[in-house]
């Protein structure tokens, strides 16, 4: 059985992971745009 605190921690970790992936994706896209120019 997962405790509520564990569930909240997993949700927070998932949110951070999504933000990190989105940030790295946008950063790589920006660098690609700079390289193409």
Describe the fold and architecture:
The N and C termini lie far apart (54 Å). Helices cover 89% and strands 0% of the residues. The protein has 1 helix and no strands. The protein has one helix at residues 4-36. The chain is mainly alpha-helical and 37 residues long.
Structural key phrases:
37 residues; mainly alpha; 1 helix
Q: What's the helical proportion of residues?
A: over 70%
The count of helical stretches stands at 1
Structural class: mainly alpha
Question: Whole-Å distance between the termini?
Answer: 54 Å
Number of strands: 0
Binned strand content: under 5%
Q: How many strands, which pairing sense, and closed or not: the largest β-sheet?
A: none
**What characteristic shape results from the CA principal axes?**
rod-shaped
Radius of gyration: 16 Å
């Amino acid at each position: 059985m997962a405790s509520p605190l564990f569930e909240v921690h997993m949700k927070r970790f998932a949110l951070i992971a999504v933000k990190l992936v989105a940030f790295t994706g946008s950063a790589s896209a920006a660098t690609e745009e700079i390289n193409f120019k």
